[in-house]
Protein 1
Amino acid sequence: MAKIIGGITTSHIPAIGRAISLNIEETPYWKPFFDGYPPIRKWLGEKKPDVVVLFYNDHGLEFFLNKKPTFSIGVAPQYISADEGWGIATIPPVTGETELSWHICNTLVEDEFDITICQEMKVDHGLTVPLQLMWPGNTYGHIKVIPVCINCEQHPMPSLKRCFNLGRSIAKAIESFDKDLNVVVFGTGGLSHQLDGQRAGFINKPFDLMCMDKIVNQPEELFQYSVRDLVEQAGAQGPELNMWMGMRGVLSGKVTELHRNYHIPISNTGAGTMLLENN
Ligand code: DHB
Ligand code: FE
């Protein structure tokens, strides 16, 4: 049976991809941020996951405002990152996973989630920057990635509770999949940030730290925050917390926090990094 071994959270800011390609990780601005990753890379090196279920949001590359699925799942054998206009260097393709992906899709539809199943999908920084962070030198090609994309760009957006339940259903699918695979789950994006408008640059550190505390063993306490509350408390892009909740829903009731880092600002964002082992 496939096994869910743990969850990892990370911000997915395009400037991180640029810093990696320019090799400036050790400069004063970037060092406190990149210092958050070696313990997670070590854990990944020891646990050797076969598959990453990766929650991210598409910022307009594949799904623009003219068509915006609430939840979409990739079932393709490979994903290419395309030019988003951020000036991120070209990186190798991402390896997909087709069997478990379809099994997840079947389970989600049975559980009454209306998903968009993508046999082709361009992927943006939301998916690629986390892979670059976890496998330096862009050595992520051996890992099979299942993209789970949540709408965080155009209202109406799903609630934290609904994303958590999406994760629960994905867990059910993984745990009933008849192959010995080790699966790790990534929740990308966040934490607080606002990229445009009068509050551009808004970051809420106390709210971010509260979310990091709650996500460990009291994730349901975060259900009280509506999408509107998230925009107020954590900025227009604060609803990216939904990807963290999807990740947390895939893990079991109790998890052990093995590592965390929080640093502000990275670009416009409160950058949160966590490693949670599934009990
Ligand atoms: C930034 C953060 C994001 O989550 C994103 O998708 C794009 C940009 C930023 O802080 O620059
Ligand atoms: Fe984002």
Note: Residues 12-15, 59, 189, 193, 195, 237, 240, 267-269 surround 3,4-dihydroxybenzoic acid (ligand 1) (CB under 6 Å).
Protein 2
Amino acid sequence: MSTVERQSWDVVVVGAGGAGLRAAIEARERGLRTAVVCKSLFGKAHTVMAEGGIAAAMGNVNAGDGWQVHFRDTLRGGKFLNHPRMAELHAREAPDRVWELETWGALFDRTKDGRISQRNFGGHEYPRLAHVGDRTGLELIRTLQQRVVALQQEDFKESGDHEARLKVFQECTVTRVLKEDAADQGSRVAGVFCYERESGRFFAIDAPSVVLATGGIGKSFKVTSNSWEYTGDGHALALLAGAPLVNMEFVQFHPTGMVWPPSVKGILVTESVRGDGGVLRNSEGRRFMFDYIPEVFREQYAKDEAEADRWYTDPDNNRRPPELLPRDEVARAINAEVKAGRGSPHGGVFLDVSTRLPAAEIERRLPSMHHQFKQLADVDITKEPMEVGPTCHYVMGGVDVDPDTAAATGVPGLFAAGEVAGGMHGSNRLGGNSLSDLLVFGRRAGLHAAELAAALTAGERPQADEAQLAAAEAEAVRPFAPPVDEGADAAPENPYAIHQELQQAMNDLVGIIRRESEMTEALTRLAALRRRAERAAVEGHRQYNPGWHLALDLRNMLLVSECVARAARERTESRGGHTRDDHPGMDRAWRRVNLLCRLDDSQGADGGAVRLERRDLPAIRPDLLDLFDDDELAKYLTEEEVKDR
Ligand code: FAD
């Protein structure tokens, strides 16, 4: 019999970034008792770091914009692997979500005539990113938090209890999704198992709806823009609960992270620098992106520097600069320049805005970047170029969900939204499309989670048995006394050493450029690391013990890394965030293939825990296909799809 404390809520949201808060607000507004559990402090989600803006086709700066253009850009960016329904919903609903933020108190930068200003970003045909300088995520989170507090104040007036219908459990980690029947992969969700990070106290929340909104996986890689929270928890929780992950081979390496000094390597340099006029140059001073415009994009990008520069003031009569190609293209180009020996002194290339905008304008538009480089690298970006290189930034892959309801495939009661969900961005996400994704699908997840819970009577609610809580508790305390046998290869393991080896393996073998032999090697190493992680040992007790937290996170990072490596080895083409040295071209035959990852311990050969399944991506509706020229479609669609048109 477990002694773990249990409490009962209608909806549990795991994560308090943009997706989680938007889901929680929706569920609470529908009258459901909603609990939010987040591993960091309330307000310190990853969303707060978002810089450039939120993409929504409001047409404030160029009236030519509309949801159809946004949909088209999103599909082009994702190389037509996006779930078409998700991309459609996202493009249609993003403007409403931004206007809604404004009604909740968000203060966006304005155009001269007082509308929400929108800036240029890679892959977006028109200026589309609503922004607050380069601190957009901060304003987004501040606004959502303010909305949470407003709802809590309403509840206080009604019941005398601020937390009667919306409560945040901050600095608490969820380690398991509980089920009605733990042995049945398809059984209903019954809640979550958690621990308080500060005290180590365990508790469980019983609830028929669980929304995963835990963000990404970047901490599995050595060079990343992501913070400590991004250990793929939601991805792993879904897998362990029986839900598949989709598109895991697609990991976005943002082209511009800091490369110097080493202590800050990977920290993001926002795409707004290029959106606002910044250009990339190699050590010879050449604006090299003109050499890397791929055939599929040639028509849409400027042919020379003169045209590219004219575009900033006359976008209707000129084409975009190639610095604003989708991120995967720019990251590969930088990688190639460095490899060819034309890099900057510290292994990146130069990003220069100092010769493109007056100093005061740089400080006004890019205050965080100005501050970041001055403080961290002693570089004044109003006077000299930055050194930048690719950094692991975002995962396109995630929980396989129903586009309309955000329900996870095959596990009733489980929902996912935000970076932890897959499908929306296809093989490559456009900048700005994450913040809009969080709000569009966060709202939908909250809505449908609420509807599911509201439809059940008390007697119909699923309940996890005590044995599940006891098993979750035993799993969580294992690092204090791991099962250790006699012999050198069965000794206790240091979680920090395992984490370092994992990051190195993912960086070297499943990074920006991939090949089959290296990924096979990665799978072997990951299986060995997984065995070692079972013996990860920590000293001390459960209070304030970061080593223990890491030992628990390792399970998640290793599972998710295996999904990335296994799916990446299987996909024998290059597309978006997945580049194969041994299969350099995009292969139309792969256009409709989704790879699903499922947990399956019977995968003997390389000791893995994940099985792959192939599934066809749904067809794109004819009215949506009509948004593209036939010539362009012929570059992407399979032979049959082209024939059937
Ligand atoms: P997050 O905001 O990361 O929230 C995840 C939440 O889950 C956190 O509260 C965390 O504590 C919690 N959590 C995780 N695991 C657990 C667990 N086991 N138990 C309990 N809680 C857990 N996108 C754009 O569209 N525009 C931009 O300008 C932009 N700029 C960016 C700049 C940077 C530096 C970075 C890193 C990303 C940027 N992105 C941008 C991407 C975007 O910020 C993220 O994709 C997005 O914020 C993810 O939001 P989320 O709600 O899914 O997750």
Note: The chain has a mean pLDDT of 95.
Protein 3
Amino acid sequence: MSARQHIAAAEAHSAHNYHPLPVVVAHADGAWMTDIEGRRYLDMLAGYSALNFGHRHPRLIAAAKAQLDQVTLTSRAFHHDRFADFCTALAELCGMEMVLPMNTGAEAVETAVKTARKWGYRVKGVPDGQAKIVVAAGNFHGRTTTIISFSTDPEARLDFGPFTPGFEIVPYGDLAALDAAVDDRTVAVLIEPIQGEAGVLVPPPGYLAGLRRITAERGVLFIADEVQSGLGRTGRTFACEHEGVVPDMYVLGKALGGGVVPVSAVVSSAEVLGVYRPGEHGSTFGGNPLACAVALEVIAMLRSGEVQQRAAELGDHLHSELGLLAGAGGPVTAVRGRGLWAGVDIAPGHGTGREVSEQLMDRRVLVKDTHGATIRLAPPLVISKEDLDWGLEQLRAVLSG
Ligand code: PMP
């Protein structure tokens, strides 16, 4: 089948809830993908940060293969021999005590919301049914009905109501608004330490530290959704570390499964995750042996700190190169981000994000447009400096063309 035939068949038989670039990938290795007609592309999106270690990292593939020969799924009706190791290692990586494993980012966020509410009723003494969670405008936490209930993206909500109550939205980066929104019913503040889908928005300095102070003083949980920002992307294990902040709960996903298996988790204290009793929450696949085996290898790689170091060093290079495009009269109006993660706003007259993405595809570089005139760069953290420079060269050529 040609690429054209694949795309036509996909359009006929799958819902049109995405608008993919017209490339059909058949193979991938490290930072490179190959399409079914043999063309090679540099991956500068990395599965929205699920592929922080690149495609098919040998250690992750070896861990998966070894586990395939042992046991792949038990459900949580039984213990299995990778589960405790995974929970212990992940809790340790986070400096926390307990883990509740799920599969996707959205499920983990749902779990965080449910956990915060239950904690609010059982521990904090919020009157039943009254719990409120404060969130930020521009957020992206996933696609479930409850999560889109507090989205500020009209497309994400269109014709999906009725919505789940119990959320208050405040402007991102505004500590005074956050402080005013936290009241006696509030059980948690849920934010992304850097807003990914919004265009890699870094909050003003002091925001995370202020949020930490306010939530601690008022006795509400600080939930950091690090599904996209966490696990090395920003040059640290967690984006919260850039302000020396430790939240009460991490929500993790994407890179936790190394791009091999879906793995997500909520990580917190024994007081918070201790609220659950058997039967109150769960997932057939959450914490399965294959997922745990791969995630254990991901955690081991993160423990060495190498990938974070690379993301920090190459990230400085990426941002200084992009900064050169953002000078007066240049093709770029703003560059945001940390580490190997950048939101790039394209100046009027240099194309929409989609157009730039398509032109980059023609030059064998794959990125994703975010809004009208923004593209996002998030290459695998294992990318070589030469490949990164080659990708940037293609971007410069497209933007100056
Ligand atoms: N939280 C954040 C911060 C995300 O960026 C995403 C995905 N882009 C999610 C949650 C949802 O993850 P998933 O697509 O695995 O449900």
Note: The mean pLDDT is 97.
